[in-house]
Design brief:
By secondary structure, the protein is of the alpha/beta class. About 40% of the residues lie in helices and about 15% in strands. The chain has 3 domains: about 45 residues, no CATH class; about 100 residues, Rossmann fold; about 130 residues, Response regulator (Rossmann fold, 3-Layer(aba) Sandwich). A hairpin with a 2-residue loop joins strand 4 and strand 5.
């Protein structure tokens, strides 16, 4: 027989002891009580993480007739960003004492609201959060005792919309390049079936116009890198273009390759920027200036909205952009590398 004693599961009192608060305060934290101050909330969060505490959902269900389960409703399709988003959503739900299950809404768009109502009637989930629009269903609803909330972050084909499609960072990129002396730009656009691609194109055009700069044009690449590479290879010698704003990192990498095909130096002859912070961009030569999207924070933010609805509280205020610019070697003042 093994001499190893079984590891005792951490309790709410263990969390309270480590955080230096009462177990009632920890219980309020797990119920997303907003009256707890930020310092105390952070101490509890760290104690939960350090102990690996997980609420006993079965016991809670017996006491309160609560299941401790939340559902994230997503459209069918694939998106790398969704994995990061789910990590953030799961972490925030766990901290609040809930487990999360993902349900793929494969039904026709017009039938999804009915499908969600049927799921809510089962009584399995305390709250359900749809990350895609649900026609005919309000942003907040209660059915069969289950709270339903909508946070429209993806369209019906799992393409980014809403805050995920915000292209404001493109304006900041152009402003900085203009301050470095760039005057004529070129945009490598994505597939306009994606809201994000159209938004990045529009912000590019609006910013160039607002700053009194020049746009040599927009190349409709439809996310195909070969089109971006070919566009650069065919660019007239006297085009005057010194900076390319690409709609994603793949198009940006193809732009760099097209410049190298011509014997140009990046960024001395051409500055290039991308979007999405593909890990390969950091390893390129030169490394690629890009825009990182905080998909994990999006997931956390979405779950907080659902928890607020469940608690009958106003939705928390949005805390800024989900994007940040990572400046690397592929951008510089014209003529400098």
């Amino acid at each position: 027989m093994s001499s190893d004693a079984p590891t005792r599961r951490p309790t709410i009192k263990d969390v309270a002891r480590l955080a230096g608060v009462s177990h009632q305060t920890v219980s309020r934290y797990l119920r997303s009580d907003t009256s707890i101050n930020d310092a105390m909330r952070e101490s509890i969060r760290q104690a939960i993480a350090q102990l690996g505490y997980r609420p006993n959902l079965a016991a809670r269900a017996m006491r309160n007739r609560k299941t401790g389960r939340l559902a994230l409703l997503m459209p069918s399709g694939t998106a790398v960003s969704s994995l990061e988003m789910l990590a953030g959503a799961t972490a925030d739900a766990r901290e609040a004492g809930y487990s999360i299950e993902v349900i793929i809404l494969g039904d026709p768009v017009e039938a999804r609201a009915q499908r969600v109502m049927e799921l809510s009637d089962y009584g399995v989930f305390e709250g359900m959060l749809s990350l895609t629009p649900l026609p005919s269903l309000p942003h907040r609803a209660v059915s069969g005792g289950t709270v339903i909330a909508v946070s429209a972050d993806y369209d019906d084909q799992m393409r980014s919309i809403g805050a995920l499609a915000d292209a404001t960072s493109a304006s900041e990129i152009i402003e900085r390049l203009a301050s470095q002396g760039h005057r004529r730009f070129l945009h490598m656009a994505g597939d306009y079936a994606h809201t994000a691609a159209g938004a990045r194109r529009q912000v590019y055009l609006d910013t160039v116009r607002r700053l009194g700069l020049e746009s040599y044009g927009v190349v409709d690449c439809e996310w195909l890198p070969a089109r971006a590479r070919e566009a650069i290879r065919n660019l007239p010698e006297d085009s005057g273009v010194t900076a390319v704003i690409a709609a994603n990192d793949l198009l940006a990498a193809a732009t760099v390759r097209g410049a190298l095909d011509r014997g140009w130096s990046v960024p001395r002859d051409l500055s290039v920027t991308g979007w999405d912070n593909n890990p390969v961009g950091a390893e390129m030569v030169p490394s690629l200036t890009t825009v990182a999207v905080d998909n994990e924070h999006l997931g956390r933010r979405a779950v907080r909205r659902l928890l607020a609805v469940m608690a009958g509280e106003p939705a928390p205020e949005e805390d800024g952009l989900l994007t940040r610019i990572i400046w690397r070697e592929s951008t510089a003042p014209p003529g400098r590398s």
